[in-house]
Amino acid sequence: MKYFTSFLLLFLSSHCFATHINISGYLKNFFIVQESLNNDIFQLDTLYQSQNSARLMLDGFSDQMTWQIHYEPSIEFRSAASPQFARKSNNYRLADIKNNESNVNKTIVFHNLDRLNVQLQLKAGDLTIGRQAITFGSARIINPSDVFLPFNFRVRNTEYRTGIDAIRFQKPLGELSELDMGIVLSKDAKIENSAVFVQWLGNLSGNDIQVTAMQFSKQKLLGLGYQGALGAIGTWLEVAYVKGNADYYRLSLGFDYAFTENTFFMLEYHNNGAGASNPSGYTDLQNDKAYQDGGVFLLGTNYLLSSLNWQISALLNLGFQGIVNLDDKSLFLNAALNYSLSENLYLGLAYYHFTGDDFLNALEGLQFGSEYGGNPNSISIDLSFYF
User: Fold this and answer.
1) How many domains does the chain have?
2) Which residues of 146-176 are buried (b: 16+ CB within 10 A; e: fewer)?
C-alpha cells in the first residue's frame, strides 16, 4: 500500500502546478445525551458524548484529469466507557491508518484518509484509480446490491460515503446508458477478500434499469434494479441474489410522493434474506459473510421503512425516518430538525427513539429480545461549519 500511495501522491504532485485546486472542508460537533440502561445485561448511567470531526478536502481539476485528497480526523469524548457492538468487517482498503477504538477508553481518536484518487478523462470513458466512493442500487433507503460499506442508520455523520480502494472504469454507451466496471482491493490485495464488478445502467421506455454482477470475498452477486413512475408517484424495485459460502437474497420495493412542493414522503418494504426471523438468531450473524463482507447490517428479515421531509422555510428543515422490524415488532424512529444560521453555519437537533423487547440474560449468555428494544434513546445537538 505504501508504494501505491507514494506513486499516487507523486503523480498528483507532478500535476498540481497545471491544475486548478479547490480547498474546502468542514468542522462538526455532535453533543449527545444517551439515556441510562438498566436491564439483565447492562446497568449504565446516563452517557454524555462529544463527537468532533474535521474534514480537509483538496480537489484538483484540469482538462483531462481530476484528483482528490480528503482527510478526516475525529476525536470523541465520553463521560464513561460504554459497550459498542461494532463487528469486525472488511473495509475494502489495501491498508489503512491504525486506529484504537477500545470500549474501555473515554477518549477515542480516529483518523480517516477517505479520498486519495485520480480520475483520467479518456476518449473511451473515465478511469478512476485510488480511494473513492462507490455505490450501487436503485432503491432509495436500502440497496440490496450495495456491498461496499453502506452507512448504518444509527451513524450520525453520513455526509460523505466512506472511501474504498479501487480501479474503476465508466464508459458511456449513449445519452442515458453506461457500462461501469472495476476492481476493489482489500487488505494486502488478497483475492479472497477483494472484489470485481461490472454494471450496466440504461433507460427503457423512460424507466431506469440497472444490472449488476459482482464477486466479493468469494461470493457471487447478481443484482437487478428498476426506477420509474406511476403518474406523480415515483416507484422502484431492486433485488440481489448472493451465492457462495452464504446464500441469500435481498429485495427492496417502494414509492415516493411529494404532497406539496415542500413535503416529500417515501415508503419502502425490505426483505433481508441474510437475517434471522427470530431474535434468538441475531447474535450468530456477526460472523456471517453477509455481515462481514456484504454490507448487510439489519438483523431481521422483514422491514417497513419510511421517511418524511418537510422544508418549513428556506432556512428550516424537519425530517422523520422510521424503521419497523416486522418480525420482532421493534422500532427505530429518528426525528431531526436542521436550521441554517448563516451561509456556512448549520445547527441541528436530533432524537433517536427505540422500542421493543429488551436484552435477555439467557443460559448461553447475551440474547436479543428484539433488534431495537435494547438500545437507549438519545438526543443530540450538532453544529457544522463549512469553509
Assistant:
1) 1
2) bbbbbeebeebbeebbbbbbbbbbbeeeeee
